[in-house]
Structure formats: C-alpha cells, structure tokens
Amino acid sequence: MWTGYKILIFSYLATEIWTEGSSLSGRDVGLGAASSRNHSSSEGCLRDGQHFKEGSVIKENCNPCTCSQQQWRCSQHACLVRPELLEHINNGDFGWTAQNYSQFWGMTLQEGFTHRLGTLPPGPTLLSMNEVTASLPTHTDLPEIFISSYKWPGWTHGPLDQKNCAASWAFSTASVAADRIAIHSKGQYTANLSPQNLISCCAKSRLGCHGGSIDRAWWFLRKRGLVSHACYPLLRDPRPDAHACAMESRAAARGRRQATRPCPNSLEKSNRIFQCSPAYRVSSNETEIMREIMQNGPVQAIMQVHEDFFHYKTGIYRHVAGSREESKYRKLRSHAVKLTGWGTLRGAQGKKEKFWIAANSWGKSWGENGYFRILRGVNESDIEKLIIAAWGQLARSDQEP
Ligand SMILES: *[C@@H]1O[C@H](CO)[C@@H](O)[C@H](O)[C@H]1NC(C)=O
Ligand SMILES: *[C@@H]1O[C@H](CO)[C@@H](O)[C@H](O)[C@H]1NC(C)=O
Ligand SMILES: *[C@@H]1O[C@H](CO)[C@@H](O)[C@H](O)[C@H]1NC(C)=O
Ligand SMILES: *[C@@H]1O[C@H](CO)[C@@H](O)[C@H](O)[C@H]1NC(C)=O
C-alpha cells in the first residue's frame, strides 16, 4: 500500500520536475491518464502561446502529448536525454561534462539502449579464453601518455557512426582489425575494414543491427575475411537487415580467401579480402593492457554502459548515478569499444587520475571527436574485464587482384 503511494508521489514529482524544465506550463499538463469524460472542447490547448486543437499531438522530448479536454496528456516514458541528469553531472565535480545531444533527444531510454549499443554479453567461450601476455620485456618503461595515432600515423582509424544500428559488435571488431592489419603489415594495408560486411554477411550472428557477439565477429574475420569500408560502405537504409549480404569470399591459396564479387559500390575497385588470426584475450591487468596496445596496437574492450554515458562530452568518464534512484531511469548493457591509448590528468577534485583513451562508434560529434576517456586501473564500467585482440594475417603471396 505504502509502496504504491510512494510510486504515486514519485511520478507526481517526476511530472512536476519535468514540467518545470519544459516549455509546457504546469496548468497545461495533464498528470494522469485521460478520462473518458467528453467536454464541449472547442478550446484546445496552449503551448508557447500557440493554440492547438483538441486531439493535437506534440512531442515533449521522448513523450507524445495529446491535447485532450484542454489539457496536454503526456506518456511517461523515461527519456534517453534527461535534463536533470545533465545538470547534476555538470554542476558536480565528477571529472567530466555532459551534453544534450540532438541525435539522442526524443529517444526513450529503452530505445537508446536497444539501438545504440549492440554487443551481447560475453559468453563462457570468450570468458574462458586463455590470456596472452605481450612479449615486450617487463622492464620496458611505459610512457605516461600514449596515443596510437601518434605512434602509427595514418595506420589507425577514427570512429564511425553506427546510428540506430545496434552493432557495436561489428564496428569495434572491424576497427581493431583494420588498425592491427595496418600496424602488422607496417603500413602496407591501411584500409579501414567494413563493419557493414560483418553486419550483412556474418550469418552466424544473424542479428545484424539487433546486436551480435564479438566471438562470431572474430570468427568471421578469421574464416571469411572482410573487404574494406570503401568497398562495402555503410548502408543508408534505416533497415539495414533488409539487405542481403553483398560480398562473398572463397578459399584461395594457402588459407587465404578471395572475393567472388565486385564491391557493392562503383567507386571502389579493390575487393581485397582481409583476414585475422584467431582472436586472443589480453590480461585484465592494466599494465598488460598498456603493453599490448603499445606493442601490437589498439585492443577491443567490452564495457558496461550506464544511462549517463550517452551524455559524455569531455573529461574522464566515471559512472555518475542520477540524484533520483528510481530504477525506471537506470539501465545497464554491454557495448564494445576500441582502446587506443592512455594518459594521466588532473581530474575530479583536482586529483591526478589515470585514464584510457577509447574510440566509440557514435560518430565524431559525440564525446571528444568520437573518442572518450575513462578511468584506468579501477575496472570502471568493466572496461578492463574483457580485452580482445588479434593479429593481422598477412601472407607473402598477397597480391592485389
Ligand atoms: C467526444 O467527442 C468527439 C468529437 O469531438 C467524439 O468523436 C467522441 O465520440 C466523443 N466521445 C465521447 C465518449 O462522447
Ligand atoms: C536539448 O536539445 C534539443 C534539440 O537538440 C532541444 O529541443 C532541447 O530543448 C534541449 N534540452 C535541454 C534541456 O537543453
Ligand atoms: C600486473 O602485471 C605487472 C607485471 O606486468 C605486475 O607487476 C603487477 O603486479 C600486476 N598487477 C596486478 C594487480 O596483478
Ligand atoms: C570488473 O568488474 C566486474 C563487475 O564488477 C567483475 O565481474 C570483473 O571481474 C572485474 N574485472 C576485473 C579485472 O577487476
């Protein structure tokens, strides 16, 4: 009984707070479900001094509001962008700042988590993989700051934008593989690899834009291989799954594979297939991860994304819980990103803090030019829990067709 009452109070407060921050005046906002009474209702509703007819529908962030009996009645979904969480983060001293991203405005929290991530939680196969230790001599001094793109200019690849395709499993894998093929070939092959090739063709992970597993992605890189991103670019269709796989490969000499079709776009002629060695797991030890990156290139990390992460603009990310503890506003899902370097900086409360530099797949307008920094050495958001890498597979017989 009391619980039910509390929920009522909460949802009332929620509406009040929401109303304050929105452009609807309190008077015009309905607090509950529409009643079935029917007024003579020619008067309609007001919004920003503008008149709306009875039955009009407008959208307040992620919630549609209907003008019914001279009142706006809004659905009560939790939205992905929550102005009071933005304020809480920006008024606090958490080491990072938040931004209201227009690409997320209007999405529900559920939609954000459903469409913008897309890596299945690592299964037992991945978690039981043996850890491989970098062969860099243990006494090697690790620099205070390391940035992959400085050590290997032109050989590493910046973030793409997965948009509403829940395929971070494909974006992060293709990106790590591309960087490593460029690094291990000493710059002979510097093409970015095609996440679309994985999304559309990795049949064993049929989910495509509805999430997938990275062990399947790495299996595909080893057994089938990918063409370049220029050859098989991202599809613009909002339903990418509607597209059949437009690139096949078949076995050629010495375990290598060849494309059986031209690129599915007329601008790029090279349909070379790129492959990797079996993926391996890197230790969760911070020092080991650093050594692996410095020696062999960027690595893949599976992290847990909380609702505040979407708002990240700049600084060193650490999870910040909203001031309201309602479960409605909380969510957690796994996501795959690429770790590209590290550093230290004076962060929250003026303390010196260690961070990783990571590439996300939400485009360059998000975060620090598509990248983010996150606390290092404390397993923040599980960022150090599962680190995966592979070798670019390069045969001496490689020849452009
Ligand atoms: C309310 O009025 C609308 C027309 O404005 C009408 O279509 C609808 O049937 C009425 N509903 C009830 C419950 O009287
Ligand atoms: C956030 O951005 C959207 C559009 O990009 C804008 O309509 C909205 O008013 C902004 N909200 C806040 C709280 O700044
Ligand atoms: C991580 O590995 C290094 C050696 O590379 C070792 O000195 C250190 O103690 C390890 N840290 C942990 C927490 O195991
Ligand atoms: C990281 O945190 C997760 C969950 O809190 C835990 O399962 C995992 O073992 C941790 N990993 C390390 C390396 O501390």
Automatic annotation (TrEMBL):
<comment type="function">
    <text>May be implicated in the adrenocortical zonation and in mechanisms for repressing the CYP11B1 gene expression in adrenocortical cells. This is a non catalytic peptidase C1 family protein.</text>
</comment>
<feature type="domain" description="Peptidase C1A papain C-terminal">
    <location>
        <begin position="142"/>
        <end position="391"/>
    </location>
</feature>
<feature type="signal peptide">
    <location>
        <begin position="1"/>
        <end position="19"/>
    </location>
</feature>
<dbReference type="GO" id="GO:0008234">
    <property type="term" value="F:cysteine-type peptidase activity"/>
</dbReference>
<dbReference type="InterPro" id="IPR038765">
    <property type="entry name" value="Papain-like_cys_pep_sf"/>
</dbReference>
<keyword id="KW-1015">Disulfide bond</keyword>
<keyword id="KW-0964">Secreted</keyword>
<dbReference type="InterPro" id="IPR013128">
    <property type="entry name" value="Peptidase_C1A"/>
</dbReference>
<dbReference type="Pfam" id="PF00112">
    <property type="entry name" value="Peptidase_C1"/>
</dbReference>
<dbReference type="GO" id="GO:0006508">
    <property type="term" value="P:proteolysis"/>
</dbReference>
<protein>
    <recommendedName>
        <fullName>Tubulointerstitial nephritis antigen-like</fullName>
    </recommendedName>
</protein>
<dbReference type="InterPro" id="IPR000668">
    <property type="entry name" value="Peptidase_C1A_C"/>
</dbReference>
<dbReference type="GO" id="GO:0005576">
    <property type="term" value="C:extracellular region"/>
</dbReference>
<keyword id="KW-0325">Glycoprotein</keyword>
<keyword id="KW-0732">Signal</keyword>
<dbReference type="InterPro" id="IPR025661">
    <property type="entry name" value="Pept_asp_AS"/>
</dbReference>
<comment type="similarity">
    <text>Belongs to the peptidase C1 family.</text>
</comment>
